[in-house]
Design goal:
It contains four helices and three strands. By secondary structure, it is of the alpha+beta class. A three-stranded antiparallel β-sheet has the order 1-2-3, with no helix packed on it. The termini are far apart.
């Protein structure tokens, strides 16, 4: 069967990611990037929909996240699915201890 002309490497990658997240625990699958900010060293940190944060370092050749280097790249990642390793381990969200802040 011939592949559709609309199937691009990006759409295949997004479809593969969606399939992977659909098969994982629903709490993990619902985690998305809701914002980005820099730490004191200038490294980008993603704020996740679960309330946790995660560094998004671009330190080639070990970590390649070229999208962190431009405002357009960072904006394009808002809403992107991401596995939260802290949620997987059952770590509490900072400030979510049941007490009023």
């Amino acid at each position: 069967m011939k592949a559709s002309a609309s199937t691009t490497p990006t759409s295949r990658t997004n479809a593969a990611a969606a399939n992977r997240f659909a098969s994982e625990d629903s709490a993990v699958a619902a985690v998305t990037i809701t914002g980005l900010h820099q730490d004191e060293e200038g490294q980008w940190i993603a704020t996740l929909s679960c309330g946790h944060t995660r560094h998004m370092r671009h330190t080639p050749p070990w970590q390649i996240r070229a999208w962190t280097q431009t405002p357009q790249g960072r904006a394009a990642q808002l809403g992107a699915p991401l596995v939260c390793r802290l949620c997987e381990r059952g770590e509490p969200v900072p400030g979510d201890d049941g007490e009023a802040a």
